[in-house]
Amino acid sequence: MTEAIQTLRSEHKTTARMLDLLERQITLFEETQQPDYDLLKEVIDYFLTYPDLYHHPKENLILEVLRRKAPEAAAPVGDIEREHAEISSRLHDFAHAVVEVLMEAEVSRDAFVKIARDFVEEQRRHMIKEEQVFFPAALKALTPVDWEAIDKKVSRFNDPLTATESELRFDSLRQMLRR
Ligand SMILES: [Fe+2]
């Protein structure tokens, strides 16, 4: 397997675990209205930085190469860039809702829970599609030369939660993931 796809898959694993953490916080909020504030804040920082800023552009780049080299293989993948843009806009709405909750502003509990659950579900659906349709199509159609060029471009933008200790930034999240 190529380094790029290997990294994207391991980033998906981290994201999936983040979504589990987030879901637990949503349930906690529903039950007690008392989420783990620091954790929620770090989860939001994580989503804004890694998946939004670095992970999705890497996938967009691979899809662009796939469309150019093998349009017939790219067709079933659909418009992943648009999905990324929608996820990004939903993420920003969600991030603002979290900050309002963290500041204990008067927000409707039901509205917040709905935004949060929609966000989690959409992320999961999107990752399943990439894992089941996009990555296999790219792996099948692109050549080692294509992957070498892709790996070179994307390898500097890896998620620190899947990278080595020395590169890590999100300390308490890393500890939570270890538990
Ligand atoms: Fe992805």
Describe the structure.
The structure is a single chain. The protein has 179 residues and is an all-alpha fold. It has helices at 3-32, 37-69, 71-74, 80-102, 109-141, 144-154, 171-178. It binds fe (ii) ion. The site of fe (ii) ion has 6 residues, from helix 1, helix 2 and helix 5.
Set down the secondary structure blueprint.
Layout: H1 3-32, H2 37-69, H3 71-74, H4 80-102, H5 109-141, H6 144-154, H7 171-178
Short descriptors:
179 residues, Four Helix Bundle (Hemerythrin (Met), subunit A), binds fe (ii) ion, mainly alpha
In short:
By secondary structure, this protein is mainly alpha-helical. The protein contains seven helices and no strands. The protein has one domain: nmb1532 protein domain like (Four Helix Bundle (Hemerythrin (Met), subunit A), Up-down Bundle), CATH 1.20.120.
